[in-house]
Amino acid sequence: MNAQNLIYDRFIAPLQKPRANYIGIEIEMPVVNLSGEKTDKTVSITAVKKAIEHFGFTPNKFDDDGICHEAVCGDTGDVFSFDCSYNNFEISLGRVRTLHEAQARFRDYVRFINGELNRYQHTLTGMGINPNYKINDFNFVPSPRYRMLEGYLKKCKVWKGQFHPFYGYGTFSSASQVQLDVTEENLCETIEAFSLVEPLKTVLFANSFFPDKPELLCVRDYFWEQSPHGINPGNVGFFESLPKSTGEITDYLSKASIFCAERDGKYLFFYPIPFDEYLKRDTVEGEYYDGDYHTCSLTPSAGDIAYLRTYKQIDLTARGTLEFRSACTQPLGEAMTVAAFHLGLMNQTKKLTNLIKNSFLYQANEKPAQLRQKMNRADFLSFVNADELKALLSDVLQLCAEGLKERGYSEEIYLSPLYDRARTLTSPSVCLLRQNDVNKAVREYAKL
Hints:
15 helices, four-stranded antiparallel β-sheet, alpha+beta
C-alpha cells in the first residue's frame, strides 16, 4: 500500500475532472435558551423534527435512542443536522450556483425553525460560541460517529500534550464554512492567496469570544490546535510552508495523521498516526464504543484513507474543492458574508497575492500563522497601524467586489456589512465586547 498513490487518487485526481464552479455552504448555529438556562434538547429536537416534515426532508441518520439527528432534501441536497450535540444545529446547503439561492433557502429554514424555538424561549443565533456553554450539557449526540469523536477528544485527559480542558468544544462552538471548486492548475496559487489573507479574516469575521480565553477574538484556532486533533501539527492550522505543486501537497497529506477507522459497523479511534506510517503497521491498538469504551486491535487497510482528513484553515477535500474553515458563524442577517468574501476572491488570487505580499502586513517576513495569532488578539491594534489596516482591508474588499461583479449575479450586495467592519475594525466579537450585553447580542445576532 503506497500512501502517496492512495492520496493522489483520493485528493488530486478529482481536481482533473471538469469543474462546475458550484458553491457549498455549511452554517452551524448554537441553540440558545433565552431564559439563561441550559438548552433543552427536547425543544431543539422537536423544532427540527417539525422543520424536516414542513420542508419535506428525509430522515437518514438516527441516534442510539431513535432520534433523527440528520435529514436530507432529495431535490436540493440540503441537509439538516445536529453537529456534535443537540445544542448545535447545522444547515448544509446543497450545491448552488449563486448566493441568492443560498440566501433564500437559508432564510426560509431559519425563519421556520426559530418560529418553533421561540415558542419555548429558545433561538438559533449567529454566534460562534453558545453563551450558555458553562451550564449546557457537554453530551455528544449518542451515535456511533459522535461516540467515537467524544472518546477521542476526551483523551486530552490521558495522553501527553498541551491540551485545553474543553474536550466538548464541538458541542458549543459554531462555524461558517464554504467549499469552492478548484482545479489542479490553480490549486497552489489559491492556497497561497487565501493563506496570506487569513490574518485579515479575524478582523472581519471573528465571532467566537470565549470568556475563559478573553485575550482571543476567535477561539476556534485554540480549540482545534490545542486538542488531540493538533497532536500532529500537519492536521490543523496552516501549511508549514506554502505548497508549490500538487506533489508537495501529496507529500504533506501522507504525513498527516489518521485517528479513526470503521470495522464491522463500529467506529474505532486511536492515537493519531501519520498515514504513511499507519499503512506500514501490522496492527493498531484502538477503542470503540459499545455501551462503554472497549479496547481492540485493527489491521490497517488501504480503504481507511476514507477516514483521513485534516482540519486545516484551508482544507483540500476528496470532492475536488477547497474548504475554508476558519470563519466563525456570523450574525444570521449577515450569514452570506463568509461565502461572498471567498467567492469574490476566488478568481482574483494573483491580484490578491500581489496586493497582500506588497502590503505592510508581511514586511517583517512573518508567516500567515504568526500574523493570524497576532490579529486574533483582543489587543490586535497594538501590533498594527489602524489606518494602514483599514486601507488594506478596503483594497481587499474592492478586489472581492470586482470578482463578484464579474460573475454577473449582483452578489456583491452580501459584502455590505464588511465595509463597515473594515472601516471601524470591529468584528462581531469586538462589538460584543464593547456592548458587554450577551443577552442583547444573542437576540440581535438572531435577526434575519
